Amino acid sequence: MTLDEVSARPIDASAFRYLSAAEVVQQAVEEYSYDSDTARDKVSVSVTDDFTFKGDETAYLFVLFNLIKNALYYLAPYPQTRVTITVGAQQVRVRDNGPGMSADVLHGLFEPFRSVGKSGGTGRGWPTASA
Length: 131
What we know:
Layout: H1 3-7, E1 17-20, H2 21-31, H3 37-41, E2 43-47, E3 52-55, H4 57-72, E4 83-88, E5 91-96, H5 103-106
Parallel strand pairs: 2-4
Antiparallel strand pairs: 1-3, 4-5
Catalytic activity: ATP + protein L-histidine = ADP + protein N-phospho-L-histidine
GO molecular function, one term: kinase activity
Organism: Ramlibacter terrae
């Protein structure tokens, strides 16, 4: 799945349906294309209480896939990296203990997407201030 598939069609709110947050998170974790069993073992899900929300399943899966991909990108230099996805309190939290972003790129977090310090990919990861 690529961002092109999601952005090729405008999101149509009339097509939203009710989704179980826990089920879609579990689906994302199961269907993500991991590079190895070791990478898969670095991702865990914790559900304290499920909730439903109305949304676009494909877009939601894409966001989760992208967050997992970005965290696992640094697995080789940071083998202690873990990704934890928690469902509860009417929210989904995705946390990792990877290297994080430097302070100089945080100000551009919501600017148009491009990659910095990575090779390969589509350049549709997290944004930075430089092109």
